[in-house]
Design goal:
Layout: H1 14-25, H2 31-38, H3 42-55, E1 74-82, H4 87-98, E2 103-108, E3 115-121, H5 124-136, E4 141-148
Antiparallel strand pairs: 1-3, 1-4, 2-3
Amino acid sequence: MPDPLNKAPRDLDRFDRAILRLVQADNKLPQRKIGEAVSLSAAAVQRRIAAIEASGVIARNVAIVDPDAVPLTITSIVEVQLIDERAPTVEQARQLFLDTAEVQQCYYVTGGVSFMLVIVTSDMRAYSALTKRLFSENAFIASYRSLIALDRVKAGTDVIIP
C-alpha cells in the first residue's frame, strides 16, 4: 500500500501551473472550461489534475465557509508564549492547538513568541471559555495576548503560482 505521506514529487510545467491557478480559484470549474482556458482537451486536464493530486501538490478539495454565515463572529489573532522551547513543551502545545476546532490556523514562530494562532468563535463568552481552557489551565503556557479583529479585510487560501 503506498504511503500517502511519501508522495512522488512532480515537476510542474506551464499547463500544470495554469490549471492550478484556475482550480485554486474555483475547483468546481468544469474540466472542459479549464481545457479551453489552457489549450488542452478535457481528458488531458483530467489526467493532469489526477497526477497533481496524486503527487500531493493539491493537498485537498474543500469548501470555504463564510464565518459570518454560520455565525462565527469573533476572530482573534493570539500570540502564545510557552514556558520554554524544549521539544516536549512545543509538541504538547502543538497537539493541543491541532486538536482544537476553533483554532483555524496555527504557526510555530520566531521573534519573541512561540505560536501565533487564528481563532474563530461564535461570541465573546465562547472565546473567554476557550482561552481559559487553552491558556489559563495549561501549565506550559507562560502568557498569551489576544488581538480581536474588527474587520476581515482579506482572508485567502490561494498560493502564488509562478
